[in-house]
Write a structure and sequence with these properties.
Helix content: 25-40%
CATH class: Alpha Beta
Radius of gyration: 17 Å
Shape: globular
CATH superfamily: Alpha/Beta hydrolase fold, catalytic domain
Strand content: 15-25%
Number of strands: 8
Strand order of the largest sheet: 1-2-4-3-5-6-7-8
Number of domains: 1
């Protein structure tokens, strides 16, 4: 049987309003009857960042990719926090009638992913965390605004970065609530994040394993084929 090229599958653009009027933009592609998987991008990134991974997963899966609040085509409200982003994800699932999905998150999107999986464990079948460290205190570095027009709200960065640097201590304990089998993908020595932070995620989540793909923090961008192959194999288990 000839394999259909992933690029022939159309990607639809949609919006939905959740949590008191916050508009969320998302992309969806893949067969409607396919197992749903939701992709959450990193700080400052949008659903489009997942294009190569999305198209490969969409050969057999129904793939949703979200612009988190303050990013891309989603709303830029006055309130930003990681718990609000977590609540947006859970509300999105409710709005779309998705009772149970697999969840993939990169960096900050991975933090939002494990917060969601800890809050409502029954909603998530499998969890993939790409270079998303444990919620442990780390050295704070003041963010510098890039020049030019941004595809995200700079106020969101200023609100969220302190939460990443000094996370709520309850978040670490809540990792034990996650029931989804979890693949923790670490970018290796060229990642700017400490390896101990990933060891801690694996230790805290009851059914978690560590995979090192030595491409730095942007694993799925640097090696989309290798990353997607590993994720696909894990989701298919």
């Amino acid at each position: 049987m000839t394999r259909e090229p992933a690029a022939t599958r159309p990607t639809e653009q949609h919006t939905v309003t959740v949590n008191g009027g916050v508009r969320l933009a998302y992309e969806v592609t893949g067969p409607p009857a396919g197992q749903p998987v939701l992709l959450l991008p990193a700080l400052g990134k949008t659903a489009a960042d997942w294009a190569a991974v999305r198209d490969e997963l969409a050969r057999e899966r129904r793939v949703f990719a979200l612009d988190l609040r303050g990013h891309g085509a989603s709303a830029r409200p006055c309130a930003y926090s990681l718990p609000l982003m977590r609540d947006d994800v859970l509300a999105l699932l409710d709005a779309l009638g998705l009772d149970r999905v697999d969840l993939v998150g990169h960096s900050m999107g991975g933090v939002v992913a494990y917060l969601a999986a800890a809050a409502q464990p029954h909603r998530f079948g499998r969890l993939v965390l790409e270079d998303a460290p444990a919620p442990l205190p780390r050295e704070s570095v003041a963010p510098e605004r890039p020049e030019g027009e941004l595809d995200f709200d700079w106020a969101m960065v200023l609100a969220v970065r302190p939460q990443l640097d000094r996370p709520d201590p309850a978040w670490l304990a809540d990792l034990a609530r996650i029931t989804a089998p979890t693949l923790v993908v670490y970018g290796g020595p060229t990642s700017h994040l400490a390896p101990a932070a990933f060891d801690e995620v694996v230790r805290r989540i009851p059914d978690a394993r560590l995979l090192t793909l030595p491409y730095g923090h942007l694993i799925h961008a640097a090696a989309p084929g290798e990353f997607t192959e590993a994720v696909s194999a894990f989701l298919a288990e």
